[in-house]
C-alpha cells in the first residue's frame, strides 16, 4: 500500500523532471534566472541595503560608520522638515482615499448606468491619467499662480489675490487637488471595468426582491467588486506615499510642500549627500507602505489558493 | 484585432446600457448635466494650458489667463522647441523607453509563462516576489542604487562618464527592474485564462520550452502585450524621478526632466512652460486617443480577474 503511493509520488516527480530536456532547462535557467537576478539586484537588494544603510553615517565618500539609531533619532527629534512631511503624506493619503477614490467610484457608477455620450465622459475624465505627474505640476501652476492664475481670475480676486501655491498654509491642498485630478480618472477606469464584469442577473434579482437602487449597489454590487476594491486601495496608498513629481515640479518640495519622498531625494542628491540619513527616512516610508502591501499579498495568496 | 478588456469577465459582451436602458429614468438629465460639468472641469486645466501657450507673456501678465485674447501665435512652441532643444530630449527618452518596454515585456512574459503555464512549484512565491517589489515606494531603493551605480565602471562606448551613474544604462536597468513586477502580475493572470490543452498538445508533439513559449503562448497573448506595451511606454515616457536621480549631465535628461530647464531660477515664463508642457504631453495624449482601448485594457487587465 504505502509502497505504491510512494512509487506514485516519485513517478510523478520524475515525470516532472523528464518533462524538461537539457535545452529546456538551459532556456528556463537563463531567462528565469535573468529576470530574478534583475529583480533582486534592482529592487530587493537595494531595499535591504536601505535598511542597513539607515544605521550608518555613509556619505558616499568616506568610510561607513555604524551609528545605530542616531539617524532615526535625528529625523524624529531634530530634522525640522520630518514631521511636516509625515503629516503631508498622511493628508495626501486621506485626501485621495476619502475624496478622490470615492469620487472616482461615484463617476464610474454614473457612467455604468448607461448614459448617453458615456464614451466622451470616460475619455475626458481619464485623460489626465496619461499625463506625467511633472506636467500636472506645471499645469497646476497655471491655475493656481498668484498674479496670473486662472483661479484668482475666476474668483474675481485680481486686486486682492490669494497665493494658492506660495502660501505654505494652503498650498498643500491645492497640490492635492491637482493630484486628485489625475487619481480620480484612474480609479474610475478600474471600477468601470469591475462594474462591467458584475453579473447583471444579480442586479435584476435584487430589483425583483424590491431593493432600491442604492440598496442594490451597497448590498449586492459593491461586495462583488472586492478584487477591484483591494487593487484600488493598494493603488491609493502607493500613490499617496510615492507622491513626488508634482511638488518637485512646483517648488522642489519646499515651503509647505515637504514630503518624505522629497526629503529622501534631497538628502542623497543634494550637496550634503547624507546617504545614511536619507535611507532612514526611506525606511520610514517603507514601514508606512509595508502594512498595506502585506495585507494585499495575503489577500492575493488566499485568492490563489481558492482558484 | 479586438481586445478583451479583461481576462475573464463573464458578462463582458452584455451591452453596458442594459440596466439603464429603461426609459424616463428619474434624474437622467441631472446625471447628464453633472457628468458634462465634471468632464469639462477635468478638461479645463488642459485647455487652459493650450490657451495660455498661444498668448504672449505681456498680455497674460497684464490681463491674467482668464481674458479674451488680443493676439494668438505659435511663437512659444517654436521657442520651447528650439530653446530647450526638445528633439534631443525626445531622443533621450526614446533611447530609454523603447528598449525598456521590449525588454520588460520579454522577460515578464517568460516569467509569467513559466509560472502559469508550466505549473512550476514555487510559482506563486515568484509572482509575489515580483509583484511586491513593484509596490514599494521608489525612494526606498534609490539610495543604495545611487551608491551602487557610482561604483560600477563601464567602458567608454557604453558610458562617457565611465560609470553606470549618469548613463542611460542606469535608468534603463531601473525601469526594467521596477516595472517587471507589474508586468509579471498582469501577464500571469492573463495566461491563466488561456486553455491549458494547447500546451499539452504541443508537449505531445515534442515541443520544447522555448517553442511552447515563443511560438505557442506569446501569439495568444498579443492583445495583452499590446495593452501592456502601450501602458508601459506611457509610464516610462512620463518618468521624472529616475532620470533626476541617476543622470547628472543635462544633455542626457529625458523629456519630462528637461522640462524643468524651462523654468528659470528667478523668473518663469509660465506661457513658455505651458507650451513646453503641451509639447511633452502631446505624444502621450495622441497615443491615448489612438490606442484608448489598449491603454485601458492594460490597466484593467490585472485588476478584474474572475
From TrEMBL, chain A:
<dbReference type="InterPro" id="IPR000515">
    <property type="entry name" value="MetI-like"/>
</dbReference>
<feature type="transmembrane region" description="Helical">
    <location>
        <begin position="170"/>
        <end position="193"/>
    </location>
</feature>
<dbReference type="Pfam" id="PF00528">
    <property type="entry name" value="BPD_transp_1"/>
</dbReference>
<feature type="transmembrane region" description="Helical">
    <location>
        <begin position="123"/>
        <end position="144"/>
    </location>
</feature>
<keyword id="KW-1003">Cell membrane</keyword>
<dbReference type="InterPro" id="IPR035906">
    <property type="entry name" value="MetI-like_sf"/>
</dbReference>
<keyword id="KW-0812">Transmembrane</keyword>
<protein>
    <submittedName>
        <fullName>Sugar ABC transporter permease</fullName>
    </submittedName>
</protein>
<comment type="similarity">
    <text>Belongs to the binding-protein-dependent transport system permease family.</text>
</comment>
<feature type="transmembrane region" description="Helical">
    <location>
        <begin position="26"/>
        <end position="45"/>
    </location>
</feature>
<feature type="domain" description="ABC transmembrane type-1">
    <location>
        <begin position="86"/>
        <end position="298"/>
    </location>
</feature>
<keyword id="KW-1133">Transmembrane helix</keyword>
<dbReference type="GO" id="GO:0055085">
    <property type="term" value="P:transmembrane transport"/>
</dbReference>
<feature type="transmembrane region" description="Helical">
    <location>
        <begin position="275"/>
        <end position="298"/>
    </location>
</feature>
<dbReference type="GO" id="GO:0005886">
    <property type="term" value="C:plasma membrane"/>
</dbReference>
<keyword id="KW-0813">Transport</keyword>
<keyword id="KW-0472">Membrane</keyword>
<dbReference type="InterPro" id="IPR051393">
    <property type="entry name" value="ABC_transporter_permease"/>
</dbReference>
<feature type="transmembrane region" description="Helical">
    <location>
        <begin position="90"/>
        <end position="111"/>
    </location>
</feature>
From TrEMBL, chain B:
<dbReference type="Pfam" id="PF00528">
    <property type="entry name" value="BPD_transp_1"/>
</dbReference>
<feature type="transmembrane region" description="Helical">
    <location>
        <begin position="224"/>
        <end position="247"/>
    </location>
</feature>
<comment type="similarity">
    <text>Belongs to the binding-protein-dependent transport system permease family.</text>
</comment>
<dbReference type="GO" id="GO:0005886">
    <property type="term" value="C:plasma membrane"/>
</dbReference>
<dbReference type="GO" id="GO:0055085">
    <property type="term" value="P:transmembrane transport"/>
</dbReference>
<dbReference type="InterPro" id="IPR000515">
    <property type="entry name" value="MetI-like"/>
</dbReference>
<feature type="transmembrane region" description="Helical">
    <location>
        <begin position="125"/>
        <end position="148"/>
    </location>
</feature>
<keyword id="KW-0813">Transport</keyword>
<keyword id="KW-1133">Transmembrane helix</keyword>
<feature type="transmembrane region" description="Helical">
    <location>
        <begin position="272"/>
        <end position="291"/>
    </location>
</feature>
<feature type="region of interest" description="Disordered">
    <location>
        <begin position="1"/>
        <end position="25"/>
    </location>
</feature>
<keyword id="KW-0472">Membrane</keyword>
<feature type="transmembrane region" description="Helical">
    <location>
        <begin position="33"/>
        <end position="54"/>
    </location>
</feature>
<feature type="transmembrane region" description="Helical">
    <location>
        <begin position="168"/>
        <end position="188"/>
    </location>
</feature>
<dbReference type="InterPro" id="IPR035906">
    <property type="entry name" value="MetI-like_sf"/>
</dbReference>
<feature type="domain" description="ABC transmembrane type-1">
    <location>
        <begin position="90"/>
        <end position="291"/>
    </location>
</feature>
<feature type="transmembrane region" description="Helical">
    <location>
        <begin position="89"/>
        <end position="113"/>
    </location>
</feature>
<feature type="compositionally biased region" description="Low complexity">
    <location>
        <begin position="1"/>
        <end position="21"/>
    </location>
</feature>
<protein>
    <submittedName>
        <fullName>Carbohydrate ABC transporter permease</fullName>
    </submittedName>
</protein>
<keyword id="KW-1003">Cell membrane</keyword>
<keyword id="KW-0812">Transmembrane</keyword>
Amino acid at each position: 500500500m504505502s509502497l505504491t503511493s510512494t512509487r506514485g509520488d516519485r513517478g510523478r516527480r520524475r515525470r516532472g523532471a523528464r518533462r524538461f530536456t537539457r535545452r529546456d532547462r538551459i532556456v528556463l535557467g537563463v531567462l528565469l534566472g535573468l529576470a530574478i537576478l534583475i529583480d533582486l539586484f534592482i529592487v530587493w537588494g537595494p531595499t535591504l541595503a536601505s535598511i542597513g544603510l539607515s544605521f550608518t553615517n555613509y556619505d558616499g565618500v568616506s568610510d561607513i560608520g555604524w551609528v545605530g539609531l542616531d539617524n532615526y533619532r535625528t529625523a524624529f527629534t531634530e530634522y525640522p522638515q520630518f514631521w511636516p512631511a509625515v503629516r503631508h503624506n498622511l493628508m495626501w493619503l486621506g485626501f485621495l482615499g476619502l475624496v478622490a477614490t470615492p469620487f472616482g467610484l461615484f463617476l464610474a457608477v454614473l457612467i455604468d448606468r448607461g448614459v448617453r455620450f458615456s464614451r466622451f465622459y470616460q475619455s475626458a475624465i481619464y485623460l489626465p491619467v496619461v499625463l506625467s505627474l511633472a506636467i500636472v505640476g506645471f499645469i497646476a501652476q497655471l491655475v493656481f499662480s498668484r498674479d496670473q492664475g486662472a483661479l484668482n481670475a475666476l474668483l474675481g480676486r485680481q486686486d486682492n489675490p490669494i497665493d494658492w501655491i506660495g502660501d505654505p498654509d494652503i498650498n498643500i491642498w491645492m497640490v492635492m487637488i491637482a493630484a486628485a485630478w489625475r487619481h480620480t480618472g484612474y480609479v474610475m477606469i478600474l471600477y468601470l471595468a469591475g462594474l462591467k464584469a458584475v453579473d447583471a442577473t444579480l442586479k435584476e434579482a435584487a430589483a425583483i426582491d424590491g431593493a432600491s437602487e442604492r440598496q442594490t449597489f451597497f448590498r449586492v454590487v459593491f461586495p462583488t467588486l472586492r478584487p477591484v476594491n483591494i487593487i484600488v486601495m493598494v493603488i491609493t496608498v502607493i500613490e499617496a506615499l510615492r507622491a513626488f513629481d508634482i511638488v518637485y515640479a512646483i517648488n522642489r518640495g519646499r515651503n509647505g510642500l515637504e514630503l518624505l519622498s522629497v526629503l529622501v531625494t534631497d538628502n542623497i542628491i543634494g550637496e550634503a549627500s547624507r546617504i545614511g540619513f536619507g535611507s532612514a527616512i526611506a525606511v520610514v516610508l517603507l514601514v508606512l507602505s509595508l502594512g498595506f502591501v502585506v495585507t494585499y499579498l495575503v489577500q492575493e495568496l488566499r485568492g490563489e489558493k481558492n482558484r | 484585432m479586438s481586445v478583451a478588456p479583461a481576462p475573464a469577465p463573464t458578462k463582458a459582451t452584455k451591452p453596458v446600457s442594459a440596466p439603464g436602458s429603461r426609459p424616463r429614468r428619474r434624474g437622467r438629465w441631472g446625471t447628464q448635466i453633472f457628468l458634462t460639468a465634471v468632464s469639462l472641469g477635468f478638461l479645463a486645466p488642459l485647455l487652459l494650458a493650450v490657451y495660455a501657450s498661444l498668448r504672449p507673456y505681456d498680455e497674460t501678465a497684464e490681463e491674467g489667463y482668464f481674458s479674451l485674447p488680443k493676439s494668438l501665435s505659435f511663437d512659444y512652441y517654436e521657442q520651447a522647441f528650439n530653446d530647450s532643444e526638445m528633439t534631443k530630449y525626445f531622443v533621450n527618452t526614446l533611447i530609454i523607453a523603447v528598449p525598456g518596454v521590449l525588454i520588460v515585456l520579454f522577460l515578464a512574459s517568460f516569467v509569467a509563462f513559466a509560472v502559469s503555464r508550466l505549473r512550476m512549484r514555487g510559482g506563486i512565491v515568484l509572482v509575489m516576489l515580483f509583484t511586491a517589489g513593484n509596490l514599494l515606494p521608489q525612494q526606498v531603493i534609490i539610495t543604495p542604487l545611487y551608491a551602487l551605480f557610482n561604483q560600477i565602471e563601464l567602458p567608454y562606448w557604453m558610458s562617457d562618464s565611465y560609470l553606470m551613474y549618469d548613463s542611460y544604462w542606469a535608468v534603463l536597468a531601473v525601469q526594467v527592474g521596477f516595472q517587471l513586477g507589474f508586468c509579471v502580475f498582469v501577464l500571469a493572470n492573463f495566461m491563466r485564462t488561456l486553455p491549458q490543452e494547447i500546451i499539452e498538445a504541443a508537449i505531445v508533439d515534442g515541443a520544447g520550452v522555448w517553442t511552447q513559449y515563443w511560438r505557442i503562448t506569446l501569439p495568444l497573448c498579443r492583445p495583452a502585450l499590446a495593452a501592456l506595451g502601450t501602458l508601459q511606454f506611457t509610464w516610462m515616457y512620463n518618468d521624472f524621478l529616475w532620470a533626476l536621480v541617476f543622470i547628472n549631465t543635462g544633455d542626457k535628461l529625458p523629456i519630462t526632466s528637461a522640462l524643468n530647464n524651462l523654468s528659470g531660477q528667478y523668473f518663469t515664463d509660465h506661457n513658455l512652460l505651458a507650451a513646453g508642457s503641451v509639447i511633452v504631453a502631446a505624444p502621450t495624449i495622441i497615443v491615448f486617443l489612438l490606442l484608448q482601448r489598449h491603454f485601458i485594457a492594460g490597466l484593467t487587465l490585472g485588476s478584474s480577474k474572475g
